[in-house]
Write a structure and sequence with these properties.
single chain; Glutathione S-transferase Yfyf (Class Pi), Chain A, domain 2; Rossmann fold; 8 strands
Amino acid sequence: MANKQYSFYPGCSSQKKASSYNQFRSTTTICQELGIQLNEIPDWNCCSASIGYAGGGELPRLTLSARNIALSEKEHPGQDLVATCAACWLATREVQERLNHDSQIKGEVNEALKEAGLNCKGDKKVRHLVEVLIEDVGYEEIKKHVKKPLSGIKIAGYVGCQTNRPFGIAGESFENPLYLDKMIEAVGAEPVTNYQKKVSCCGGALMFSEPEKSQALVKDIIEAACDAGADMLVTPCPVCQMNTEVYQEFINKKYGTKFNLPSVYYSTLMSVAFGKTAKEAALDGQIIRAKKLEEIATK
């Protein structure tokens, strides 16, 4: 397959020792396998997805993501901007939409960017990596790279909020998006087709400020997957992955449950299916071990 190049915005949580570094590692392996070249945007900054709403004002929040877009346009002209973090993708996509539909805001943002010698056109696509995998690679091509099918594993595709609302993935239903189910099938596993909490919110950053409310949401997400017979969750979102994995211990103590359900990224599934080692698939980054994936990876 011909090499495909994209301007890559990794985002804060993908940094070494950060919460989704394991996603970054497994993403690297699948992109190498599929001939996808991710060209990191130099000197990128936080997209302000969370803290930007905490009182800093709209213009600084928009300008932070616009700066990343402007740097992408300058350093990687002609390339679509791609993010692996759902929050980064959503924040950046929102800013592009705002700038392209409001000339006043665009003027104000570019006036601020002028101080750094930058200008944001916003004329290239802002895409989540799952869009690249679906639209530019395709499920059939993904199947061709499977060396170790994940047969015998039943997986609940937890889409969550941010890749689903308000923009969504092209061609997917807002109520029942199927792209994770199709990815699960492509790597030889069995998707949970009756998963009732597929697009439910995990509470996001509310886990830090009002943990009881968020943990109640996560309990329902995990419980629905377990009730449907899932061996694990798979998600495209770093916050969803963190909340559904890290807080199971707290939920068990609070509710008397005994959850021990692995929560992994789609890139982890694909890495294992593509024949990569457990380390290349970043399985060593799991808090709740995905033992069935480990077994396949070590064969």
